[in-house]
Design goal:
Low-confidence stretches: 22-34
Strand content: 15-25%
Strand order of the largest sheet: 5-4-6-7-3-8-9-10-11
Number of helices: 9
Largest sheet: 9 strands, mixed
Structural class: alpha/beta
Mean pLDDT: 88
Distance between the termini: 63 Å
Order of helices and strands: EHEEHEHEHEHEHEEEEHEEEHEH
Amino acid sequence: KWAGKCPDCGAWNSFIEEYEVGGYGTDSGLTTNNQKLKPEEGQMIKMFDLDHKIDDINRIKINIEEFDRVLGGGIVRGSVILIAGDPGIGKSTLLLQTAAAISRINKKVLYISGEESIDQVLMRAKRLQLDKDKVKLASNTNVTNILKTLNDKNSPDIVVVDSIQTMFIDNMSSTPGTISQIRACTSELTMIAKRKNITIIIVSHVTKDGQIAGPKLLEHMVDTVLYFEGDRNQQFRLLRSIKNRYGPAGEIGVFEMNELGLEQVSNPSQLFLSNRSNNISGTAVFAGIEGSRPILSEIQALITPSFMPTPRRAAVGLDLNRLSMIIAVLGSRFGLNLSQKEVYLNVVGGLKISEPAVDLSMCLALI
C-alpha cells in the first residue's frame, strides 16, 4: 500500500511502487508471472570465441554531416539512441528534420509524438518546409499499441519516440513518467529494436540540473546518449555524444537555428570568431579539441570596480570554481590583485568548455 513516510529512517516520499514482472520483450507487452524459475527449466547459452567472425556494422547515412559525425558515421541498424535537452532547445525540430532526411533515401520512418497532436506536428513540418517528405506520423502514448505496430511485417526502419516520459504500459498502475514506467517502456522498446533490427530514437526530458530525467539505468540500457544543448537566446546549438557503443564519445555537432529550422555549421571556428576585432582588450582565442576536431573559440573577460563587500564573479560556459582559482593564482604569483574587482568571463557562441588548457586563455583575457 502507499506509504508517505518511511517508518525506518523517517524520509518522506521515498517509497516507489514496484511490480513483479516475469519477462520483457513479449509480443503483447509485459507479462506477469509469480512463479520462480528452476535451473533445470533453462537452456544452455551459446558461447563464442573472440576471433568469431562478425558482419560489418550496417549504418544508415542521414546526410546531415554534423549528426553523422556525432553518431560515428551514421545510424546503426537495431540501435537505440537517447537524445536529451532543455525544453524549447529544438529537439523535436532536429528529429523531424532528421526523419525527413532519412525518408529521402527510401527508408520507412515513423515519428510517434506523445506530447503533441498530429496537427501540431504537421504545422511544424509545414513551417520547416518538410510537408512533402514521406514520414509517417502517429500520436500515441501506449507502448503496447506501439509494440503491436512495430511487430507488423511492414514495420518501419527508423522510429522516433517523443518523449519517453509520456509513454506508459497499461497493465502497470503507476503514472507515466515514474521510474518504473520509464524503465519498463525503455526495456520493451530496446527489446523490439534488437529483435526486429529497428533503430529507435528516444527523446528524454532533463532535470533542473541538466541531467536526464528518470533512473540512471536509462542511460545504461541504450546504445547512444546524446545531449542537445545551447542557449535559447542564441542561435547556436550543440549536439554532444556522451556515450556511443558504435563510435567515439565526446564528439560534437554544431547547428544554427534560423527561420527554417536547424542548419548545420561545417566550420564552427569561423562562426564563433566571425565578429571578432583584434583591437579589443580582454579577449583571447582558445584552441581546444572537441571530439576529433579542433575548434577555435573566443574567451571574453570584463573587470570593473566593485563597491560591494564581496565582489561578484560570473562565468558563462566556464567553471566558476576554476575562475576563482585562477584569480587567486594571478594575485599570488603574478601580482594582479582582483580582490576589489568584479570579474566576468564569457565564451562566445554558447560553447561550454571543460578542457584544462583553457586556463591560459582565461588568464590572458583577465590580464
